Description:
This protein is mainly α.
Amino acid sequence: MNIESPIDEELKRKREASSVSELDSNMSATPNVEKQKKKKSKQKQSDNNRGEMANTFEDNRDVITQMKKIILRLDKLDEKFNTFNKKLENVLVKGGWSLQEAIKERLMEIKEDLLKSVIKSVEILEGRLFENEQEVEKLKVQTKTLDSELTNQKDKMTRYFRN
């Protein structure tokens, strides 16, 4: 038998009432917290989206520059193919030329281009060699003058000590 005093009952009611009001306050506070959390997550997402957009923009810019380079290279190749095609047409139209002669002519042109670059490199190296030889000659003259000065100084010293 559990007999409760009127004071105990009143305390019990107050506890129940306070726990109900706490639940109500928790229920009303929870949506506000959830809204704030949603706002923060949306802000983070928008910040991430901005960063991704900046990266995407830079990537797109890089892709555009690479595409421009590729287009330039393709244009150059197109020009070369057109010139080669014209030469082949000339071979077919003239009839006097054979395909073998056209290929030989083209290979000779390529050979001449390569020789030009090699000759240029050789000329540059010869120029450097010539400059180095001139510097060596200057140093030889300088060493001869220094040697003569040294012998003069030695002679002066030996005369000085003899006297």
